[in-house]
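Let's inspect a concrete specimen:
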Amino acid sequence: MELDFLTESIIKVAAGAVCGGLLGLERKSHNQVIGMRTLILICVSSTLLSILSVYMAKAEGFIAAAKGDPTRIAAGVVSGIGFLGGGAIMKQGLNIKGLTSAAIIWTASAFGLAIGAGLYIQVGIALAMVLFLLMRLEKLETKWFPAEKTKSLHLCFENDSLDMEKLRKTITAHGLIVADMNMSRIIKTKQIILHYLVKSPTEYDFSVLIKSLEELGNLSEFSITD
């Protein structure tokens, strides 16, 4: 094995570890399950497999077996990484968590393969872009689309003459987006029970909403859950 090739391989593996570490650091800063070790392993192993793929295609002893195609191992990595990414996606109540982490797993694998192929500048540009988007775009998304958490809103009124349209406008006026509504009426006790599926900001003070709902009628129950 040539010394130049060995040196280049060490540089590539180190670069893969740096990329994976930076992506893992960003995930841990958001208290996500996937972290630095996982993404470093993904990025370094993808780098090594990419180096192996190119080496097998170029080395004389492997040409016959590999048929000179350096994409065969890379294609296997791309197919296999989807299973690992799928494991990062979880359903918590009415919300789905882990989609961004799954995408980052895919990204770390892509970085590793590209580093193994020697595309340092391209990886550097892509890494800077990905980190910038991950750190900055979330704040813009929260500002532009604050209602991102899906919740179940349960209301019970002790009067059966409730203005439903005014109730809906009151809920939406407080920053909630109504996705669906189910209603039941208990005729004997003159109760109206409402179940709304709403989207709300991550941090929200529901005490103001409760006061506004109490003004619409005799509110006896209020609960909102994920």
